[in-house]
Amino acid sequence: MTRFNIFPYSLLCLVTFLLSASAAGQLIWTVEDEGHTAPVSSVAFSPDGTQLASGAYDYFRAQPTNSVGGAIGAQLTSELHDYTVRLWDVTAGQELRQFTGHTDWVFSVAYSPDGTQLASGSWDNTVRLWDVATGQELRQFTGHTSEVNSVDFSPDGIQLASGSWDNTVRLWDVATGQELRQFTGHTSEINSVAFSPDGTQLASGSGGLGFSEDNTVRLWDVATGQEIQTFTGHSDRVNSVAFSPDGTQLASGSDDNTVRVWDVVTQQELQTLTGHTNWVISVAFSPDGTQLASGSGGVSTLEDNTVRLWDVSTGQELSQFTGHTAWVSSVAFSPDGTQLASGSLDSSVRLWDVFTGQQLQNIQNHTARVTSVSFSPDGTQLASGSRDYTVHLWDVSTGLELLQFTGHTYDVSSVAFSPDGTQLASGSLDGTVRLWDVATGQGLRTFTGHTSRVRSVVFSPDGTQLAFSSIDNNVNTIRLWEVSTGQELRQFSGHDHYISSVTFSPDGTQLASGSHDHTIRLWDAATGQELQRFTGHAYAIFSVAFSPDGTQLASGSWDSTIRLWDVTTGQEMQQFTGHTDWVLSVAFSLNGNQLISGSLDNSIRIWDVTSGQQLGNSLLHGDDDAYDVRSVAISSDERFIASAGRFVIRLWDATATALETAPMGVEISPTFSHYPNPAEAFTVVEYALSKPGQVQLSVHDLLGREVIRALDTVQTAGSHNLQLATKQLAGGFYLMRLIIDGRQEIRPLVVR
Fold first, then answer.
1. What is the phi-psi region of residue 83: left when phi exceeds 0, alpha when psi lies from -120 to 50, beta otherwise?
2. Residue 75 CB coordination number (10 Å)
3. pLDDT digits (tens, 9 = 90+) for 85-110
4. 396, 635 in Cβ contact below 8 A?
5. Which end of the chain has fewer CB within 10 Å, C or N?
6. Local structure of 69: helix, strand or coil
């Protein structure tokens, strides 16, 4: 367990995928920008190695927001904190649950030995105990008069130790929450505490930032509270202490840039491990005690930000794990010693392979609010735009990120696929629209001319033209561009307030626009002339959509209603009521019989177009304001509904077909694939070798256990395929592993 005292604010978010089998209207996966939003201070594996807990000082800033189609949420800028502990599935990288209640930075987390409880220490001066299965708070331990930097369970799980900036170590009864005793003697804050494996001794590391005269490790008798020994030698603050698995050695990491290994019995220093170029913030022994991991970072110009692996007996550095872009605040070995987890001030939790040094997981994608989602025409891909200035491309079946499109210099407000799916357009508050190649992620063209924010973009049905709306010199305009040349064709003006949404009629001859002037307008795409005006909404209109046959137009408004209009006459045909807040997005099903809507009331609703009645129950996007629905889209085969909120993208199964999806973090390469997936009796595996090599192909369950060994032989260069029988496997999710000359590729496999 490790703690430190100075931190930079960070505004990065984690992206997690929440997976589930799905019935109609059930959630399939989630891409969330509501993982940790600031420095991750502590990580800890569950005793069985299947889960990982992390604690952080979660911080983000709410600003005026722009939804899909340019809808405006008039929110005051404010700082929000949630001070959470989060629980992750190690195999899939999924967030399982959050533990909320602390009112300041969560600085340390520790599992009970049986894995059923989780303890957290916080700068709110409390220690809290949580039920891992439910996320419920079981009790609070109060008494510390300053920040709690470190917590650790006794090996029998009966007692809990905590170290604080009040210069004390305290021992608590887990069952009652009562304080049993205090350990006093340190003259500076306690940064780390650790029980010996037999539970009879307790170690603590101390020191302040730059002014401490303590800088010691102390050993205490748990039964009496008496100090047994003081270990001196560090020349600066001690940030972390850890016992070896057999209890005979003690490791400590310090701001003097060293790791030291001590003999617990003789109190002699055995090794000084040097190599880090900045503070050593965290140390951890491997389960067999032969290796030691350390994480580093600091405020000097000599950035380190590495995890290092050491040979305990020789003191030699074995490997470095690089990738973190800020201090590594915590390190922890998996129970089997094959994986190493690290938490960092770059707001990420990373998982490493101890033997190869390869990064297995980095739970981090969009780093700000998601504003828009759009399906590719074939329904296999989903694009998302965000306030982190990027567009991301996702694989719908697996939930994996395929590409990032970067170049915008401000929030991305809208994204749209070309009809053939080969290009993607994005509109931004930087005043530009960018055209991207979907296959490569390369920018093809930038459309400039608008003098202010672009709020909505849409392709013509034939893909030759692109329309988008903005405010230019206080005039609310729609501009029409030729995609192939980037030339502006014409402008449409007349709205008295900014335009939130534009859409083409199915035949491409007309354009509809919704505005904050409470009107919808119909335009002739060839001439730019206004053809029709639809009035009736009491407030701003955020979204408009044509029916597939082009005879009807739907609109969603600030007045919480959806309205259906006759395109020819301009008459209102139907009102859909039920939403309790602004309706920000509407979309027709492909047959035109149903209408889907998303709202600030956090719900997605499906309506019968003819009767105006809601079909089934609302799909709840989340429980609080962070889950309002700002964009909805339906896939071309009508299997999926995608919804986007401030911090979350969710994919819903619109049918009754069961579906499971793959965990994040699996790298996809075009030279290794298999089909069908999901598989029933068999799947055909295809791969290519650039040169002759040793090939191993196997299938593993989510615990990493091999269930099929399909291939282990030398093969020639070129393309290869084989039919892999899967009927002997129980239905569920598996991982297929291909190893070619030691290089590993993994693919998800779903068996029905």
1. left
2. 12
3. 888 776 766 678 888 888 887 888 88
4. yes
5. C
6. helix
Residue 268 neighbours by CB under 8 Å, 6+ apart? 262
**C-beta separation of 496 from 490 below 8 A:** no
SS3 510: strand
Q: Which residue has the tokens 């709020």?
A: 455
Rounded Cα distance, 571 and 565, in Å: 6
**Contact residues for 141 (Cβ-Cβ < 8 A; gap 6+):** 126, 127, 128, 129, 160, 162, 170, 172, 177, 179
Mean pLDDT of 395-404: 70
* 437 DSSP assignment: E
Angle at 605 between CA 599 and CA 607, to 5 degrees: 125
Q: 81: Cβ–Cβ under 8 A, 6 or more apart, which residues?
A: 57, 58, 59
CB count, 10 Å around CB of 610?
Answer: 12
Residue 439, H or E segment: none
Q: Which of 127, 114, 141 is nearest to 55 (CA)?
A: 127
Q: Are 676 and 711 in contact (CB under 8 A)?
A: no
C-alpha span between 347 and 350 (Å, rounded): 10
Instruction: Tell me which DSSP letter residue 125 carries.
Output: S
276 touches 300 (CB < 8 A)? no
- Contact call for residues 321 and 338 (beta carbons, < 8 A): no
How far is CA 705 from each of CA 91, 162, 209, 582, 694, rounded to the nearest angstrom?
12, 37, 46, 49, 21
Residue with tokens 């929110």: 75
pLDDT at 314: 93
Q: Is 506 helix (H, G, I), strand (E, B) or coil?
A: coil
Q: Are 642 and 633 in contact (CB under 8 A)?
A: yes
Digit-coded pLDDT (tens) for 705-742: 789 999 989 988 777 888 899 988 888 778 888 888 77
Q: Is the peptide bond before 155 cis (omega within 30 degrees of 0)?
A: no
DSSP character at residue 452: S
Contacts of 142 by beta carbon, 8 Å cutoff, 6+ apart? 125, 126
Alpha-carbon span 385 to 371, nearest angstrom: 6
Bridge partners, 130 (sequence order) = 118, 137
Amino acid at 749: L
Distance spanning both ends of the chain, measured CA to CA? 42
Three-state SS across 667-736?
CCCCCEEEECCCECCEEEEEEEECCCEEEEEEEECCCCCEEEEEEEEEECCEEEEEEEECCCCCCEEEEE
Structure tokens at 8: 């930079």
Q: Give the H or E element holding residue 492.
A: strand 488-493
DSSP conformation letters of 337-402: SSEEEEEETTS-EEEEETTT--EEEE-----S-EEEEEE-TTSSEEEEEETTS-EEEEETTT--EE
Distance from C-alpha of 122 to C-alpha of 327, rounded to nearest angstrom: 19
Q: How far is CA 331 from CA 115, 183, 356, in A?
A: 18, 26, 17
Give residue 491's identity as a one-letter amino acid code: Q
Per DSSP, the chain holds a count of helices (H) and strands (E) of 0, 67
Q: Where are the alpha helices (DSSP H) in 332-420?
A: none
CB-CB neighbours of 271 under 10 Å: 20
Give the predicted TM-score (pTM) of the model.
0.47
CB 341 within 8 A of CB 349: yes
Q: Please, is 351 exposed, middle or buried when counting C-beta atoms within 10 Å of its C-beta (0-12, 13-18, 19+)? A: buried
